[in-house]
Amino acid sequence: MSGWKIWTATVLIGGLLAFPAAAAQELSELKTKAEQGDAGAQLSLGKMHAKGKGAPRDFALAAQWFRQAAGQGNAEAQTRLGNLYYNGQGVSQNTGEASLWFSKAAKQGHAQAQTYLGSMHAAGKGLPRDMAKAIEFFRRAAEQGHAGAQTQLGSILAKGKDVPQDYEAAAKWYRKAAEQGNPHAQNNLGALYEDGRGVAQNYEAAVKWYRKAAGQGHARAQINLGVIYEKGSGLPLDMVEAVRWYRKAAEQGHAEAQLYLGDIYAAGQGVPRDYAESLNWIHKAAEQGNVDAQAALGNIYLQGMGAPQNYAAAVKWHRLAAGQGNAESQLVLGRLYHDGESVRQDNAEAVKWYQKAAEQGNFEAQFILGDMYLKGDGVPQVYVQAHKWLNLASGLGKGDHRIKATQGRDALEKRMTREEIAEAQRLANDWFIRHAKQKNK
Question: Rounded to the nearest 5 degrees, what angle is found at the Cα of 161, between the Cα atoms of 159 and 167?
């Protein structure tokens, strides 16, 4: 810190008179050229005002100068003006105006403008969602060496959602961008090497690219490194190194890393066991809306493990996780309302949460729901529904739940007509078809 102060003082003393005067003179000369219609000067002046470097930061002034240069056909100015419209900086936000200026620049072959248009078409923001056009724009920019476009193109090919999946082509584009230092591409290329997709599996190469991205502060790459060291995937297991990388991502506010760090402190792996520190990190993740952290926090307060038992807090966090579709939290809420534990007993509320968990394939919820319909416990006694859920729990369940579900279903069939059994089987089969479609989305 003292070195910083000395350096600043030296600059101020040495440049107090000369630098501001020189800067003012340079700015004055540039403004004169710009006012005379020099497009390059107009662009430079716009950039100075947009960045606040060499001139006061003023987006409105930046927009004025970019507009003048853009009107003369300067592609970079057109792109920068479009960006101001897209973000509503210095001008009213207007994605239509943004796309107009991007298009003018893109027609001149400006790679950044082409990338912006590709992103707008991919997101359907300001332009109709059209992945064919998005890919066309990304490819045109990528072929000019634009690292962002190369990364976007790689991601589209790797996901294979709108085009045939092609990991090999994805790896090619990621590599081009990664070699230019793009951290997203470096991370994604590392992931392909780790999984052996589009390239031969190579953990050393994965770590190499993860490290490059992580060194630039890429949180996802830091987490990926942490996972490799925690699992010992292709490298010696090293919890100290895993914790180091998780912490870097967690301190950037990455919720997943915060949850991992919380779990590690609770287990005492690579760090001394510290429940208070564990609770701190899990809380941070949960407050950001991380569903697994919310469920974990609900369990901590429910069980009183690592924090004083607090049923109100347990219900709060499980409800938040359940609302995001966490089946385990839905099951917990179902049990709490069914048994009247820490909440007012409410069969309707219990059935609601059991149903949500069961529909997601939670076999415990399916078994409980089947048993409730069998006995008429909090719901009407409906053998068809009982058979459906017990049949599903028998097929998906494990251990005692599977045995009990099978026994319950088989015993129930003795009380049912052939038509009722057929209907129950049809309902179970419909659930399987529906569930399979949802998993493949």
Answer: 35
